[in-house]
């Protein structure tokens, strides 16, 4: 059955209004990931940090990279996966050709062993925080940043 945009918009309007729990949660999530980006930027001397991409209620992320990654057409991303409500680390390529090249080079690694095909947006990805506890944001932020840096360092050995 084909989607009816007019009907979908009515449902959208019922869920999305200025003080709705959906809007408050989304704004809170964006504020939090911005603070993760800010702390990452302040505390990381090894990486530069790119702009936050709000996404389309699917993924919100910011990239980080150093000169070598940039030269190789790669960047890491700290990603909030809205659907699964978890934080992930992605290794992303600058374009589709590089993604295929790096996928072929890295598909045998532990991060890709369970994937039958190349992911849509990444060369490889891993979960940093499976079930985030938003009741202690400073602790969560620290866990995301430290976990991302640890995984990035491990992945770098294979690049």
Summarize the structure in words.
The protein is α+β, with helices and mostly antiparallel strands. 44% of the residues lie in helices and 19% in strands. The protein contains five helices and five strands, in the order H-H-E-E-H-E-E-H-E-H. A five-stranded antiparallel β-sheet has the order 1-2-3-4-5. Helix 2 (21-43) packs across helix 5 (137-156). The protein is globular and about 50 Å long. The N and C termini lie far apart (45 Å). The model has no long low-confidence stretch (mean pLDDT 94).
Q: Which structural class matches the secondary elements?
A: alpha+beta
Order of helices and strands: HHEEHEEHEH
- Taking Cα atoms only, what radius of gyration do you get, to the nearest Å? 17 Å
| Low-confidence segments | none
Give the proportion of residues in helices.
40-55%
Beta fraction: 15-25%
Number of strands: 5
Mean pLDDT: 94
Highlighted features:
alpha+beta, globular, five-stranded antiparallel β-sheet, 5 helices, 159 residues
Can you give me a brief rundown of this structure?
Helices cover 44% and strands 19% of the residues. With 159 residues, the chain is an alpha+beta fold.
């Amino acid at each position: 059955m084909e989607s009816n945009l007019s009907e979908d918009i009515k449902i959208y309007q019922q869920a999305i209004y200025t003080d709705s729990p959906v809007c408050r949660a989304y704004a809170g999530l964006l504020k939090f990931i911005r603070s993760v980006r800010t702390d990452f930027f302040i505390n990381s001397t090894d990486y530069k940090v790119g702009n936050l991409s709000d996404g389309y209620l699917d993924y919100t992320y910011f990239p980080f990279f150093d000169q070598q990654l940039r030269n190789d057409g790669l960047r890491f991303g700290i990603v909030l996966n809205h659907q699964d409500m978890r934080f992930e680390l992605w290794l992303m390529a600058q374009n589709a050709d590089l993604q295929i090249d790096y996928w072929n080079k890295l598909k045998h690694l532990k991060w890709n062993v369970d994937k039958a095909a190349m992911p849509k947006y990444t060369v490889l990805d891993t979960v940093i925080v499976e079930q985030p506890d938003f009741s202690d944001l400073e602790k969560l932020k620290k866990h995301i940043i430290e976990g991302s840096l640890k995984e990035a360092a491990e992945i770098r050995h294979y690049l």
